[in-house]
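Lab manual, section 2.4: Encoding a predicted structure.

Procedure: take the sequence of the chain (595 residues), apply the prediction step described in section 2.3, and record the output as structure tokens. A sample record is shown.
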Amino acid sequence: TSSYDSRQPIEDPEVVRRHLVTEDPSITGLVGGSSSGGRGAGGGLDDEFSSLQLQGGDITRPIYRYVESIEATGGRRSRSRSFHVPRPEPEDDTLDINSIKQIGGFRRNYIRRNEGASPTGDGRGAQPGRPFLTRNFIEFLTLHGHFAGEDLEEDDEAWTSDEALMAEEGRRDEDEEEPGEDSTLLPGRARTSGRRRSRSISQGTAGSGKAILLLLKSFVGTGVLFLPKAYSNGGMLFSNLVLLFVAALSYYCFVLLVRTRLSVAGSFGDIGGILYGEKMRILILSSIIISQIGFAAAYIVFTSENLQAFILAVTNGEMLIEIKFLILTQLIVFLPMSMIRDMAKLGGTALIADLFIMLGLIYLYYYDFFTLATEGVSDIVNFNNKDWTLFIGTAIFTFEGIGLIIPIQETMKHPHKFPKVLGGVMVIITVIFVSMGALSYAAYGSGTRTVIILNLPQDDKFVNGVQFLYSLAILLSTPLQLFPAIRIMETGLFPRSGKNNPSVKWQKNIFRFITVFVTALISWGGADDLDKFVALIGSFACIPLVYIYPPLLHMRALNTSNIMKAADIGLCIFGFAVMMYTTALTIKKWSDPNQ
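Recorded output:
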């Protein structure tokens, strides 16, 4: 009712009636009163005579109808028929009539409609000119900017709230000035940065298909290439059973984290801080930092071993470069890339890296089947009682992708469907991991190398090409793994932004240099025993993130049954015991190879 005009004008139909043409001029009775002869035979406002038969009758007919309707109701009107509906503000510049009224407005409006058309129907424009694969890999990089739910977007490159306010005031001042040559033709168009716009494009709009693609990209990486050697350490039967158990348990813990996130809003670390205090938040973030630095260090060693084999093969065994020298050489690439603050600029390298990884995996499958078909199953054991603990850490390392669970869930249009989507992805990657580990171990047996690509014939030029491309892929992926650790530490150490402070910005640059050097030194220390190094990362850094923190948070966040609480407590105890046991044995084997 508020849409009606509150004013109540007095309506007098007799004033209107006086100016109407009637057949009998003597009919002048009031509408509210009654004139019995007013609607006699041929009298009154007989529309068949006085309206349609007059000149311009079609135009004046509504006026006659108005008077007749008043007569029919006896002249009683409860309120005015007039009402007021405010014109809504246009939601998009393409709908703004003020933009179209400008010079050349029709043409610009047509171009903008074509460029901003949204294939999803949400009207927000999903950049239709960008190919599907590239768009999804850019969104994957955006997820790394929100690793574990943390807002890791570089503030040195973004608008602050004060700057946004100043920009808005500047636009208002410009609108008040007389238009000149530098004035915008479309003043209503917001001039915000592309990064801020891209940050919100995919939030809460992704369907199940896009979530599946992002999850597959999150889990399938270098870890799968360490599984054949891990199978050799554990044995065929033991490794298959443990890998299936790790997959099921990891999925269960992922679901616990998802349910906790739906109950308590915040990042992985913030949820811990809300439920247990600041110390828990610091503990979770520390585990994330350690795991990401460990992943990056393992990637550096992996790349070095592949490059060493590649150079040795293409030079016919004449040039053997030390692994440690190749580690230092990679700093030439890592140091400049660590200065990149806009994740979207890594989009090209990430897409190339994933294409190379896919090519390498396809060729490995092909050669495993070829070797088994021509040479049969190699010497394998069902259980290796000497090195079985190394397999556990490597298996957990392979399945570790919990840092991207929360951001991918946040991008979904229907977050409650995420557990089902995640379950399907876990089945797919488990099939990939089990098949890759089992086939390669069956093909090469006890001779399986830590980096399975090194088992391929080194005199084959195509194999050399695969080695080089895979090395390049991991080389380009390493800065992406290191980015969350750097940003989390930067956020804690440098609360001020360096956007308008060169001193703070250079302090951040120096800190990034130091972090990259420390990561290279860690990889230097683990270069001689890569399989043990990977197992140590999985046991010490990944187990807490997957098997300890999620049940702890779930137990405190949700009011579950006693059975569920007992299960959460039991899972925490189990995870802590496995972490301590496997970490201790891995360090012992590393320090004494004869053990």
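Check your result against the sample. Residues 228 and 441 are 5 Å apart (CA to CA).
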